[in-house]
Each structure stands twice: as C-alpha cells, then as structure tokens.
Amino acid sequence: MLTKATLKWIRSLELKKNRDESGLFLAEGHKLVGDLLPLLSCRLLIHTADWKPASPLSPQTECIAVSQDVLEKASLLKHPQAVLGVFEQPGINLKPEDLRGSLSLALDTLQDPGNLGTILRIADWFGIKRVICSWGTVDAYNPKVVQATMGAIGRIDLLYTDLASFLPATGLPIFGTFLEGDSIESVSLPAEGIIVMGNEGNGISPAVAACVTRSLHIPGYPPGITGSESLNVAVATAIVCHEFRRGLQG
Fold this sequence. Notes:
With 250 residues, the protein is α/β, with parallel strands linked by helices.
C-alpha cells in the first residue's frame, strides 16, 4: 500500500533541493525505467498490476502495486505510463585527468531541461561518456531532463563544476562553437578533446570562452544567404558531435 507519507516523499523529488539532499531522482514509463534498472540502484518502484520487469529486481528495491488512480497522484506526467521509479544518483567524481584519451562535452549554463536531456541522449549516441556541466546549468536529474534522456542518463558520467578552472586543468584541446569561428568542415578534428556548448541565448560565457583553444562554426547553406540567426543548442551539438566522429572514419 502506498501511504500518504510515501506519496508526499515521491512528489517532493520534483524539487532540486530535495533531490540534492536525498541523492535521489524520479523516472517514469516502461522504457525509461526498464533501461535504468540494470544501470542504477532503484530505491522504490510503484506500478500498476499489468507492469512486469524485464529482468529480476534487486532485493533492495521496494515494489508497491497500485491502481491507475494512485499512480496518477504520484506521477509528474500528464499521462502516467504504468510504472514510476525512485533511483539513486550515481554520485560520480571526475577529475580533469579522467577526461584524457577521449572526447567529452562541456555545457555552459544551459537552462532548458529538454535541451539538456536531448544533449545527453546525443552524447550517448555518439559514444561520449563524460559530460561536464557548469554550476549554472539546469539540474540533470530534473524530471523533465530525465525523461528527455530516454535512459542515456544512466550511461553518462556527469559532473557539475566550475568550467573555467576545470577545463584548462585537463590539458586537452578545447573546442567552442561561435558564429565567427572556423568552419567545422575545414578543421581536422581529433579523437581527444572537449566540445563546449553554450547557453541558449547568450552562448559561451566570457570566462569559459577564454579556455577555448579552437573556435568552430557550423556554416549555413547556401553560403552568403542570411537565414536563421542561430541553431538550437541541441541541434548544434548533434552536428558538432557527428563531425568529430565522422572525421575518425576517414
């Protein structure tokens, strides 16, 4: 039985301060919960009678079967999908030297949960396993971010830190996207480095821009024709990551 106290506790995880204090976050839906169960520790599952896990659950996972009406009271979604899980945040502690030998992403004060969730999914698709976020970036365990990752949040190592001090300490080439940068099509892109993506409205902050060792630009088409002022940051991230990975195939 789902008590009122447990229901209140679940709903409290909508707030960042409660997620930070507890080290927990929410995930909802057949696919998302199913993807995360083998990857992260699950504290609690509440589900309708027709939901069944695809694999055996940990003995530490409490399961409570509820009616659809009760699930709707616990859910943060408009249309709940049979199961809700309370998962433990992995608490990864990355050091600058841990990024060496691979390609990573750095996100500077991104504000939109949908953008962050999509970018984590993009990183996962392109085999980028480490994402470093500025303190001002939206919380990756925000329920809207988690839903948008489609499970990628369980496969990405995340760190929130001061980018201006962390990035130079890696000793890696640091690439930033700017309107006045070199065309990404004309630059030889390495397998090792950090790609910095900036805020939706203001781009990369001056302090972080000072760490960038190579400025890149995504050219529009046809050349010389004025179109949209800029690309959505998640779209731009996908293009940049593709170009880095495409260069390794040649």
